[in-house]
Amino acid sequence: MRGGGRARNGGGSIMAAGGRSWFGALALGVSFLKCLLIPTYHSTDFEVHRNWLAITHNLPLSQWYYEATSEWTLDYPPFFAWFEYALSHIAKYFDPKMLVIENLNYSSHATIFFQRFSVIFTDILFIYAVHECCRCVNGKRSAKDILEKPTFILAVLLLWNFGLLIVDHIHFQYNGFLFGLMLLSVARLCQRRYLEGALLFAILLHFKHIYMYVAPAYGIYLLRSYCFTANNADGSLKWRSFSFLHVILLALIVCLVSALSLGPFIVLGQLPQVISRLFPFKRGLCHAYWAPNFWALYNAVDKALTVVGLNDRRAGSRIPAHCPSFCDPTGNADLYFHIYIGPRGFLQCLVLCALSSFMFGWHVHEKAILLAILPLSLLSVQRTKDAGIYLILTTTGHFSLFPLLFTAPELPIKILLMLLFTVYSFSSLKSLFRRDRPLLNWLETIYLIQLVPLEIFCEIIFPLTSWKLQLPFVPLLLTSVYCALGVTYAWLKLYISVLTEHVSVRQKAE
Questions:
Q1: What are residue 177's DSSP bridge partners?
Q2: Which residues make beta-bridge pairs with 364?
Q3: How far is it, in rounded angstroms, from Cα 55 to Cα 66?
Q4: 175-190 vs 370-380: helix axis angle to the nearest 10?
């Protein structure tokens, strides 16, 4: 990633001649595809957001986080609740019945169209954020063919991201504009517009608190690059350059945004109730469908040992209450702080935070893998090593989302979209780094190829067997555990890569 204000020459600028046209065509094309997906299956999250529209539209602020007519109670931070409140005043012109709290599972055609189009419309922020990120890309080499420019490849990898498409526009959620806020904050930090970046991220945290996972990367980067205003000749910190004024400005941003979000509930004496909704620890360590992380592997081994009789259930299978500090994103602070933090170093830290939290977090949803995949896209067009890690993580991470779409009509859709995105990812990055070593080694290639027979077994063979009634969870188990191997491998490979780079930088400095 390039620091500084405006992007300049080469692959880094999409504002050159024809830049607007190809980017606009990509954005328009993906928006058209989203419209085609409107009639597809939608999950219970569709009802979740319909219910939140009704709650915020009909009830006073004091009852938002107490209403429990539906099991899908409001459990997002206040800014998202106000977002639903604003949408509700448009929704009433489409179908007022969707705003009746008691109309559980209401899904008229007008309701479906409104909610689907609300996701598509708010994705404008994501499109703008991708545009700004592309301006910051410092390509490895310039290319005459627009299709081989790092900016073009990055725009496709982000705008046409398979996981984001199916999670938001089939399964149904509003991740697009939330990731738009995150990527725009990343772009602003890379452009050295630190206060803007900090403000955007503070706002994002009060839209969806899952982004707290990457907060350590933001905090350390802002401390390293904004609060310390100068470096020594070898790139190390110049401790006397520490600016208390900059710290105060950052603190004011955080406090003001938090006051605007949580202040009304503090005045009402409802902050504990809001916190209890945001952090429902009673849900348990693992989600119903295991996310492909460390806990999936742990649970699978635990179950296997139980079956063969090597695990004594009378003593109880104990799950560690806390992971070692090296698995905890906040425990990585020393590592992050001592890396020479430029925009690329910041992105490495951000992805490590996201992946570490995904690997060892509490009640992790499989969809949270996108929190690592999307920012890793920005690194993938910079170096061969990062491109290889990206291909492993994005292929296994996206494949792990397949069980979200379990209805027959969506089977060809998800397979086709996944194939198109995966083939493009491999071919474009291979073309970009064709003069370097191969992106994947033979073992990594074999692992990814095995996803094909796994999908054939889970989607075609298994439903025809008698196991479908006796062991219906087997496809989920196989998908989760196999993908967990790939995600874990990608996490370890990225972690080792960053550590190796850190050692190399320190040796050169010495």
A1: none
A2: 286
A3: 10
A4: 40
Distance CA 339, CA 344 (A): 11
Q: Residue 277: helix, strand or coil by DSSP?
A: helix
CB-CB contact of 93 with 113 (8 Å): no
User: Is-contact 373 422, C-beta < 8 A?
Assistant: no
Count of Cβ atoms closer than 10 Å to residue 268 Cβ: 14
Paired tokens of 58: 């009909």
- Cα 385 to its chain centre, rounded Å, is 21
Query: What residues are paired with 228 via a beta bridge?
Result: 242
Alpha helices in 331-383 (DSSP H): 333-338, 343-360, 370-380
Categorize the per-residue pLDDT at 328 as very low, low, confident or very high, splitting at 50, 70 and 90. Answer: very low
Q: Which two tokens stand for residue 483?
A: 């993908």
Q: How far is CA 412 from CA 40, 263, 404, 419, 482, in A?
A: 12, 48, 14, 10, 22
* pLDDT band at residue 507 using 50, 70 and 90 as cut-offs: low
CA distance 252 to 257: 8
Q: Which residues pair with 242 in a beta bridge?
A: 228
d(CA 176, CA 172): 11
- Taking the CA of residue 510 as centre, how many other CA atoms within 13 Å lie in the half-sphere pointing to its CB? 6
CB neighbour list of residue 46: distance below 8 Å, 6 or more residues apart: 107, 112, 115, 172
Cα 344 to its chain centre, rounded Å, is 18
- C-beta separation of 197 from 189 below 8 A: yes
Tens digits of per-residue pLDDT, 383-416? Answer: 999 999 999 999 999 999 999 999 999 999 999 9
Distance CA 95, CA 14 (A): 41
Among 378, 385, 370, 376, smallest CA distance to 444 is for: 385
Cα-flanking dihedrals φ and ψ of residue 237, to 5°?
-70, 140
- Asked whether the beta carbons of 394 and 292 are under 8 A apart, the reply is no
Contacts of 405 (CB under 8 A, 6+ apart): 41, 166, 170, 171, 411, 413, 414
- Contact yes or no for 405/414 (Cβ under 8 A): yes
- The rounded radius of gyration (Å) of the Cα atoms in the chain is 23
Angle, helices 474-509/384-399, rounded to nearest 10 degrees: 160
Q: How far apart are CA 279 and CA 445, in angstroms?
A: 39
Using left for φ > 0, alpha for ψ between -120 and 50, and beta otherwise, residue 10 falls in: left
Q: What is the pLDDT of residues 331-383, one digit of tens each?
A: 644 444 454 568 888 999 999 999 999 999 888 889 999 999 999 999 999 99
The answer to whether the Cα torsion of 362, 366, 371, 376 is positive or negative is positive
CB-based contact 26:156 (threshold 8 Å)? yes
Vertex 463: Cα angle to 457 and 466 (nearest 5): 110
